[in-house]
User: Fold this.
Amino acid sequence: MMWTTGQNDVIRELGHKGVAVVHDAILARYGVDRTLHAIEIQASRIHASLKVLTECPECHALGVRINRQSGMCRRCTVAAHVAEDEAYNQLLEAEAAGCDGGPEYEELNRRWAQLRQKNSRLMREHNLKSKRERE
Ligand SMILES: [Zn+2]
Assistant:
């Protein structure tokens, strides 16, 4: 049976995943059941490689060294560390600035409560319009 352009494209596209994956893809897409040997012959005819290459799941780079812990290439592994520590850094900066609590927050909160109390007393005693009624 003739090799179609589409089937050749499958070899070029998926060759780096090995001959078995190419076989399954050609079967799934075109309903043609090639032998592994026939695929190997066709691959060498069109100068496509069937050598299995590692692939980074993150950036899809082929033939790269994969970090065993992260499962990604070295660049993506470091990029992930950077992103993680950037987020952690923002958390620390916010904590250090007292945005999330701490003495400055407590002090402001106390002052706010006092002012609300004072204002509601003034409104009651002098029959003044509330903030909402003024809008
Ligand atoms: Zn990568």
User: Anything to note?
Assistant: The mean pLDDT is 93. The pocket of zinc ion is lined by residues 56, 58-59, 61, 72-73, 75-76 (CB under 6 Å). DSSP finds six helices and no strands in the chain.
